[in-house]
Amino acid sequence: MATYKKRGSKVKKDNQVNIEDQSTTAEVFNTLDETASRSEQWIEKNQKIVFTGLIVVAAVILAFLAYNKYIVEPKEKEAADELAFPKRYFEEAQNTSVSVDSLYSLSLNGADGKYGLIDIVDNYGGTKAGNLAKYMGGIAFLKTGDYQSAIKYLSDFSSEDDMLAALAKGNIADAFMGIDQPEDALQYYLKAANVKVNDFTSPLYLFRAGNVAMELGKYDDAETYFTTIKNEYPKSEEAKNISIFIQRAQLSQK
Q1: Burial of 115 (C-beta count, 10 Å sphere; 0-12/13-18/19+)
Q2: Are 207 and 226 within 8 A, CB to CB?
Q3: What are the two backbone dihedrals, phi and then psi, of residue 119, each rounded to the nearest 5 degrees?
Q4: Residue 216, CB half-sphere, CA atoms under 13 Å: how many?
Q5: d(CA 204, CA 126)
Q6: What is the mean pLDDT of residues 83-93?
Q7: Separation of CA 16 from chain center
Q8: In this predicted structure, what is the pLDDT of residue 100?
Q9: Alpha-carbon dihedral sign for residues 134, 139, 140, 145
Q10: What is the pTM of this model?
Q11: Could you give the residue ranges of the DSSP H alpha helices within the chain?
Q12: Spatial separation of the C-alpha atoms in residues 189 and 206, rounded to whole Å
């Protein structure tokens, strides 16, 4: 008898749970229906605004694609074509051991109606070729003694190539040394050494940083830079006689 009553109580309880679950499910669906209905009403009420927004977005995308196809791409090609003339003289100046001022001058200023690097930077500065012209122009100015222009052009240059970025900063440092600003030069040599750690630019610019630090009387810093070369870049060219420079920095501290 007791068992029968217990079983009936359980069935009754299960039925109550089922009814509650069904009620909760119904409430959820009702809420979803109400939300969907409100969304539809909002869209119907604001369909003009929505439609206008979609048109604006589509117009912006099409304008961007058209701008790239009909303005950016032709300008990039034009800039690359113009760069060919000064690039030839710049590379010739880089690869010869004789007096090269005239070659750098031709690369900077152009000739025979052809653009030089200065013209390309002025007219195509936002293109890839224009950006490269800033680097080459900066080097050309540096080699011909116009250090202020070298700093300007090289500072405006940007590159995702870590090696080229390091060389640009290192040459800015060289330009600061040319105008007797060793403190600025030291900072740029350190930046150049740390753009990306490698066995070429890192020891090269750490060595120059060490020598400038010695000039500035920062002997402890100089020792640190020289010691870093010895420990971290033992196979580099700068490491060959680095112990002499370390010893000199240590003696200077006494």
Answers
A1: buried
A2: yes
A3: -65, -40
A4: 20
A5: 31
A6: 93
A7: 66
A8: 83
A9: positive
A10: 0.73
A11: 2-45, 47-67, 73-94, 101-109, 117-124, 128-143, 147-156, 162-178, 182-194, 201-215, 219-232, 242-252
A12: 7
